[in-house]
Amino acid sequence: MTLASIGVLTSCTNDDTTAPSLPDNGTRIVKTSITKYEGIGQNIEAENNITDIQACIFEDEKMTKIYNNLIPSKSSFDIQIDKHAGTLYVLANTQEQINLEELKSQEITEEEWLKKCMTMKDNAPVQFYTGSLSLDDMGSSQTVLPVNLKRGYARFDLNLRTAGVASVNSITLKNAAQSGTLFPSATQIATKEVQVKDMTVSFDSPLTTDTPAVLYAYEQAQGNLEISVDVTIDGKPHTLTKAISGDIKRNTIYTITVRKDVIDVTIEVSLDEWEEGNDTTSLYPKLVVSL
């Protein structure tokens, strides 16, 4: 199911049923979107699959409301909130690992919440999205509340620029993080404690043309990161490696370019960020919020 065809129904919990409503008792629309990126990379339809959406609100460092069991359908969903106060967090494709009811019962603080991580599934990162909105900054008359959902992972594309015939058999990201924080603000702190290991993607049929999305990775700070490519060029096997300078950033496309010249074969790693650009891709349905 793609983002363009998603609607949701919801159940919610409310700590304070006596809190005053906003003056107009109207409906607020939380409009979610994913920002397009500039550069040579293109969005892939499979990356737009949403399996679940959930949300919560923090006020004064406490989780005060949760909105779970958001089932994709052709309709929108209502969220009951009492006032424009606190921060609204929206998460997609996280329900298997993030249990909001359990976290609320544990009285998780907002600082702890921002450090929560997604782990690997089937030896690969989960393709999840998160976004937040400060309700304190919203005027009571504002009827549309925009939440920009950002991908919580990076993507690697493959380009082949060899003079001869090349086929890629596997790609390894060495010392890859095995978990990634829900939100980018705590990445530097969490990286000190995250487990790392080599992550290899092998191809049943060797890749002989430019191929997008050959590998995904969680965001992580610099730390002995290295790309290794097993490639056959003109019938001769090669293992090519290149250190990645800097961090791996979420919502970013990294391009692995395999080249051959008269001296050597090298790998060039460049990046194009999904988050750049002025256009946005709207997610449907819009999240309807009743105040």
Quick description:
With 291 residues, the chain is mainly β.
Outline the structure in words:
Strand 18 (252-260) and strand 19 (265-273) form a beta hairpin. This protein folds into 2 domains: 3-153 and 276-290, Immunoglobulin-like (Sandwich); 154-273, Sandwich (Immunoglobulin-like). The strands form 5 sheets. Strands 1-4-3-6-8-10 form a 6-stranded antiparallel β-sheet. Strands 2, 5, 9, 20 and 21 form a 5-stranded mixed β-sheet that branches. A 4-stranded mixed β-sheet has the order 15-11-18-19, with no helix packed on it. It has 291 residues and is mostly beta strands. 5% of the residues lie in helices and 50% in strands. The protein starts with 6 loop residues before the first strand and ends with a strand. The chain has helices at residues 100-105, 110-113, 187-191, and strands at 7-14, 27-35, 53-59, 62-73, 78-80, 87-92, 117-119, 129-134, 144-148, 150-151, 153-161, 166-177, 179-181, 196-207, 211-218, 226-233, 236-243, 252-260, 265-273, 280-282, 287-290.
